[in-house]
Amino acid sequence: MIRTVIVGGGVVGLSLAYELACRNEHEAPNREIVLIDSGAFGRKASNSGAGILLPSNGQTAIHPFDQLEAIGNNLHESWSERLRAETGIDNGFRKCGGLYIARTVGEIALLAGTLEHWRQREIEFETLTQDQLVRKFPIFKESVEQSDRFKSVFVPSEYQFRNPDHLAALVDACRRRGVQLHECVGPTELEMQHDRVAAVKSASRRWTGDQFCLTAGPWTSALCELMHQDLPMQPVKGHIVLYKLAQQKFVPVVNEGSRYLVPREDGHVLAGSTIQETGFDDSIALGEVDGLRAWTGSVLPLLDESKVVDCWTGLRPGTFDGFPYMGPIASASNAFVSTGHFKAGLQLSPACGVAMADLMDGLEPVVDLTPFAVSRVSDRYYSKSTENK
Ligand SMILES: Cc1cc2nc3c(=O)[nH]c(=O)nc-3n(C[C@H](O)[C@H](O)[C@H](O)COP(=O)(O)OP(=O)(O)OC[C@H]3O[C@@H](n4cnc5c(N)ncnc54)[C@H](O)[C@@H]3O)c2cc1C
Prior knowledge:
Elements: E1 2-7, H1 11-23, E2 31-36, H2 45-48, E3 52-53, H3 64-87, E4 94-95, E5 98-102, H4 105-120, E6 126-128, H5 130-136, H6 141-145, E7 151-155, E8 159-160, H7 163-176, E9 180-182, E10 189-193, E11 196-201, E12 206-208, E13 211-214, H8 220-225, E14 233-244, E15 253-256, E16 259-263, E17 268-272, H9 286-299, E18 308-319, E19 325-328, E20 335-339, H10 345-360, H11 376-388
Parallel strand pairs: 1-2, 1-13, 2-9, 5-15, 13-20
Antiparallel strand pairs: 3-8, 4-8, 5-7, 6-7, 10-11, 11-12, 14-17, 14-18, 15-16, 16-17, 19-20
Helix pairs in contact: 1-7, 1-10, 3-7, 3-10
The structure holds flavin-adenine dinucleotide.
């Protein structure tokens, strides 16, 4: 029996725990799985995110990141069904489509780049004139007619899910499948023994294991220091403003530049997001909220101040080159890491769970994890900083 300890219960850690638990033979489990979180499970970035799953095409995906995205989208469909059957929780996974609009020269140029990417990846989309857009989605008539410059595109293969419900389903399913769950344990650190991690310790408890995987979002860097492994990470704050309408008024996610509206079936609409690098400060910046509200009003005047019901932030786990860290840690022979999924952690999470479970099972991972190796930090990060000086 192998004992695997996962440190950090956001969507990445929970998905790995769930995948490992699903691999356990029910009658004769060969693995004990322990999941530990300093706080409550799934309350950090994983809860704050919008739950958008961007379009992808597994047939044309060449880079492992694109492959993870495509596998992620497929797995979300099957996991959502299985999680609903196991827990009774519907995570709201839906193929809602994505409407992309551009109303400035810069945005039009950016959208042209996105369209070229979709063409190359053979992702189906439909360009809409202003008239066609208004006919298809009359609710946007006002903002469309007020724009001198305008381009819009509809992409059918965009999905959304309600991440808080998905997280609740993962926790429940892990519990039912025998994962040992320990949340709100307070700060933790690793206990090293020669070149191995011996245990994870909190102020009052110690969890030993044969294998450890660190999935603590932007806090993973601090844990890695104890293994003398540099893991440069940058928490990247994002805000979301939540609106409530009496009923759902439009179905697709609406995207403009880095901003979006995500309509839920019960009439809630999430407006996101912002990008700030303010360290681990996750306080709400009123200026950023005002900016989001002004943009939302310009897209859909119906969403005025009286419909705002909540507002929050989250810290995306950013890395120095935009790619996640996934793989073994050289300085500790029984330690692995899976973090740094930045803006795509919700989308990638099931695929990352499968790839990391493969690796920890000694199997060839479902995608080539070489571009995500931790060793690239010394190869590229430091040589780059020296070159720049
Ligand atoms: C505003 C916003 C919108 C987003 N929208 C989307 C989206 O639409 N689609 C998408 O795919 N992604 C989106 N993302 C990104 C996505 O939310 C993240 O990439 C993802 O949630 C990261 O998950 P994680 O499990 O790595 O980290 P987290 O969710 O941050 O979880 C890390 C966990 O580790 C715990 N922890 C920290 N330190 C320790 C320790 N020492 N010991 C034990 N536990 C510890 C924390 O308490 C936390 O529970 C969005 C993010 C934000 C902020």
